[in-house]
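Colleagues,

Please find the record for the three-part complex below.
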Amino acid sequence: MIGRNRLLPQTSAGWAALAAGAVALALLPLFAPAYYVGLVTTAMIAAMLALSLHLLVGGAGLVSLGHGAFYGLAAYTVFLMSPEGAPRPIWQTLPAAMLVAGLAALVVGALSLRTKGFFFLMVTLACGQMIFAIFHDTRLGGGADGAYLAKPLLSIFGFTLDPLSLPRAERGWPVYYVALVQLTATYLALALLLRSLFGSVLEGIRVNESRMEAMGFNTGRYKLAAFVIAGVLAGAAGHMWSLYSGFVNPEVVGWRQSAEALLMILLGGIGALVGAVVGAFAFVALGEIAQMITSRQLLVEGLAILAAVVLLRDGFMGLKPPWRGARSPRGGGRESALR
Amino acid sequence: MSIAIFLSQILNGLQYGLLLFLIASGLTLIFGVLGVINLAHGSLFMIGAYVAFLVVKASGSLWLALPACVVVGLALGALLERFLFRYFYNREHLDQVLLTFALILIFEELRSLLVGNDFHSVPVPAALDFSVPITAGFSYAAYRLVVIGVCLALAAALFWWIERTKMGAIVRAAAEKPEMVDVLGIDARRVHMTVFAVGAALALAAGGLAAPLTSVYPNMGDGLLIVSFVVVVIGGFGSVSGAFWAALLVGLIDTLGKAYGSAFSGAAAGGLGAALPAMSIYMVMILVLVLRPSGLFGGRS
Amino acid sequence: MTGSRAGPAAVLATEGLTKYFGRLAAVRDVTLALRVNALHAVIGPNGAGKSTFVDLLSGRLRPSQGRVLLEGRDVSGAPAWRMARLGVARSFQRTNIFKPLSVLENVRLAAQAVRLPIARLLSTPPRQTALIEAARRALERVGLADAERSVAGALSHGAQRQLEIAMTLAIEPKVLLLDEPLAGMGQEESERMAALLKSLAREHAVLLIEHDMDFVFKVADQMTVLVEGAALATGSPAEVRANKAVQTAYLGAQA
């Protein structure tokens, strides 16, 4: 068990499967129509956000309802730096977006980590809503309607790649590959973090925080570090969103964004880091399938989520089927959440 | 800043706060007694508004709408508890959040299927479509006064039920100490269903009352949902009286803040000051959670 | 009542330690001193405030009044993690190990808390031989060296209690606060634990909370009787046994 983290592949076969997945993604644009290249790009962006949240949820046991705010904040940072018509190179926008997201995470984390369990959930929600209010109620980011931004320029060492200079079928490729590289880098960075001693401390905090404290770990500091790292990574994902979509609106900092990220982790399985990626892809696929079957897309999604929450129970409560007898409320569930 | 405008803003704040109370009281009872975070409560508000819209469309009378909302609310709440929420009492809060989030989506789509996505206005009953003069030079919409009155009546009814009836006493005790319900050998399931039904009925009633004021439209419950959570936190989980005062506080801060905030911050509407009312409410919520989790007005942590 | 004698300086001492929960005084004005080679037991009926007292010493709770002194320095109110780093280790009444992890991993994690410089934070566990060595030493000391690969949750209850103690030793503490280490143990395991505790007391200042009266009288060099949060008597086992107030309040007629 030493040197491994239960969130990472436990065998070389597992790592090989991950590598194969990355290769498949790399080859996809060669075979798939442009529409699907764009779709998979959105899935990869969602996966990056879900991965960053998984560091908190699966890695440290911190369930946050305000994580989407760092994602959206990064996108708004890109907008503020490069509004429509005034683009900037990616090597300026990406670090700036990540920095702003990280600073916000530092402030929010310092405040919210003073609480635990359900209260932590509520404080993160409130902080996210404050950020939402800033962009929804003021003209700073175009108000409730949002605004178009100038997509960051893909330039490096003076050489700029303009997607419009490519044939139509390949215009989505540069952004696709940037997203793929970023997704892979995010996963590897998290894997490195989780395998290390830092990761084992987080695991200890997740399993038994008061014991960790009694042993001499300043658990608050470790949680804050994880929170900020997660915020920075969410910021990177938000930057990718702005690069792909070209606009911002308050929905990207809203609580629904945070709830969706939580959902993706649940869909993919809390027990593995790659579950965030799987869940993100599943969520996007679900939306597509729903659209193909019926115009009632949200209904299908809602029912699917319902089914998932009811049936997919891995990790948290063990394997007890929830339909076998109703229990009285406020039992172990609340205690374990509040720890 | 004339007195007339100030008075009307105060009344608006009261009215908003009282509607908030109806929603938040159900939310706080559901969390206090059942331990469930119900994100779908805002959807119940929306359902109430649409029920009122349909009743008015069918019968032309808003007077029928309110009882209809209450009846539908009681039924819907009981059904939801019996067939869905009952199985989630022991689950992690994460699961409850996601479950009720799914419900929001489902309710929105069902509404879309049944009634469509259009913006609909609901006419104020002709009998109430006038302004009541309160002072020389200031009059206030009669319907809004009625809303305030009905909300206060419903609040009084709720308090009476909790303080004076046997079931209400059980609910009140259970909100403080949920374990007591089992220990006393009371049929816990009836208590749970009652709490859910009452909570839902209040939310639908709020929606029905609000329909003529705000019109009915998709996602109308969203904004109120989060603010209701703020009220529950500030008032103290499980405390109905706490929710009452917290709702009034929040309603007044929000309304007065929006009306006068730009004057204080010096920024024009749309400038940074416009976000202050919302931000200050969330700030209070955060401070309460961090410093005094049991709420400002009682309730327990 | 300090019950102090001329002898080695106290490693951990309290002066008038008091803790209120609302209006209830869970611990009232308790003064005692812990020394090396003088195993100090705290006994008392259920609810007497023993666990609260340990929480105050370990930093899990802040005192309402009074002081906690570590080697003469006032450390009152220091949080649990700082107390641990200063050398005050505690075990828990209900087994508080990391059940999904292996025995060695549990103790390594404990060792990591005080030994790890930030620069090494990103390295992977197998490389940290110093930590693993420290963990193995602690396991050896309690007699669990053979079980290092077992999953902690799968151990017998007695072995889990031993693991608890190993985890406290991993940080090489000056003070050991042991909250009912015998809980749930059988006769033979208790004897082993008695021997272990006596040997530990030779190197560390040990405070022991226990219910089992015979065990306490056998093992302790000093005793304090806590009733309703206050120290009724402090002294050697013989002195305490002879104390009239203690007899009536706690030991009953069979003292």
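Residues 22-154+169-320 of chain A form a domain with the ABC transporter involved in vitamin B12 uptake, BtuC fold (CATH 1.10.3470).

Comments are welcome before we finalize the supplementary table.
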